[in-house]
Amino acid sequence: MKDTARNVLETEEFAVNVVTEVTIEQMDRTSVSVPPEESEFEFADIERAPCRHITPPRVADAVVTMECTLYDSIEVYEKLMILGDVHHYHVSDAVLTNGAIDSRKIDTVGRLGGPHYTVSDPIDFERQF
To answer: Distances in Å between the alpha carbon of 11 and those of 25, 88, 108?
Structure first.
């Protein structure tokens, strides 16, 4: 089990940091296998910031971070899916428009599997239902 999953199960707290194109290389470095007593923050040279409602730190440069507590964990095809309740959001002013998160200002990165990633390109679409 990876350190993150093990830590979440032990502490029942975790921070979800939105990855952007600017932070993708640091995010990738955090996936290296280091001994549990070593910090991925240190290894990847990522600045930490304190959270308000949970003990684990957050990524200081993340444009959005969600402070979460464990809701449940489910094993799916030998992988652990962790579900959390969000208790607090940290949001950079740079991604706000009129006090709301503006997805057009966040170049989010998503993992597709293996070495493949994607970046967001929001489109206008009016829901019909």
So the answer is: 27, 17, 27
